[in-house]
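RECORD TYPE: inverse folding
INPUT: structure tokens
STRUCTURE:
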């Protein structure tokens, strides 16, 4: 497996960083994950714009221009032996003595790798997935895609312990997101999602859903969603770069919304699949 580290492409086993890297010591960094279909990155400009927003949010200078990032991403994709990929990369504040304050004159650490894209199975698409609900106990800058993900890890483990795919989170009685996904509901044919504020990650797939829905003639609405409304919805979906759009059919061990993916989900799934890059073969 070939990875990228600080300007070099090299075998994974040869990629090393210092134990004093601030990503390791403090979780002081940000990350992105870009889905690749038929070796074409999906919505790359949007992912790079979100990366810039996250870097700005933690006051870390972007080590590359957008064109440089694109070149590195495409080179790694070309060096990786499968067509559908998940390109993961992270930028940390670099290596310095342990001190909470920002170090001066330190180069950022840039790491990138690509793995097979773990898409939902045909069974998951056809039958939906199970989720559990949990209290959102994370910090107040969930809109930044930082590598400090312990709150998300603990929430996902709650789901794993229950044999579920995700943990859907609520803060002060209102839906935020899931441990590694955005969440949508459908009420009377209208697709509804929480607003993009500091409590949720501004998902690239979240934006794609609304763009594709509007283009496909589906009604959409962005507003706060209470726990009661979410759990009484006609449909609930998860979205992310690896889940694409996925219906929820079980919540806290009980069948949700008749226990099958709904008609609005079916339409959205078709729209999303049609939006993906196609093979030139």
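DESIGNED SEQUENCE:
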């Amino acid at each position: 497996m070939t990875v990228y580290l600080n300007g070099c492409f090299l075998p994974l086993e040869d990629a090393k960083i210092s134990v004093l890297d601030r990503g390791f010591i403090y979780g002081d960094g940000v990350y992105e994950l870009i889905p690749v279909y038929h070796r074409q990155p999906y919505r790359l400009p949007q992912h790079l714009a979100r990366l810039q927003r996250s870097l700005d949010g933690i006051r870390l200078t972007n080590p590359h221009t957008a064109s440089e990032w694109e070149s590195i991403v495409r080179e790694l994709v070309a060096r990786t032996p499968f067509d559908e990929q998940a390109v993961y990369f992270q930028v940390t504040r670099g290596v310095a003595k342990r001190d909470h304050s920002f170090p001066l004159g330190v180069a950022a650490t840039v790491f990138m790798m690509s793995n097979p894209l773990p898409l939902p199975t045909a069974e998951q698409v056809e039958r939906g997935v199970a989720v559990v609900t949990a209290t959102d106990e994370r910090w107040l800058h969930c809109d930044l895609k930082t590598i400090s993900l312990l709150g998300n890890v603990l929430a996902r483990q709650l789901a794993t312990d229950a044999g579920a795919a995700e943990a859907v989170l609520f803060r002060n009685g209102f839906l935020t997101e899931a441990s590694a996904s955005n969440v949508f509901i459908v009420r009377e044919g209208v697709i509804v999602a929480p607003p993009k504020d500091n409590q949720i990650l501004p998902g690239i797939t979240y934006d794609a859903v609304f763009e594709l829905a509007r283009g496909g003639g589906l009604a959409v609405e962005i507003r706060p969603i209470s726990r009661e409304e979410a759990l009484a919805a006609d449909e609930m979906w998860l979205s992310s770069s690896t889940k694409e759009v996925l219906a929820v059919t079980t919540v806290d061990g009980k069948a949700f919304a008749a226990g099958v993916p709904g008609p609005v989900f079916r339409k959205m799934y078709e729209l999303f699949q049609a939006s993906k890059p196609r093979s030139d073969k």
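NOTES: The two ends are 25 Å apart (CA to CA).
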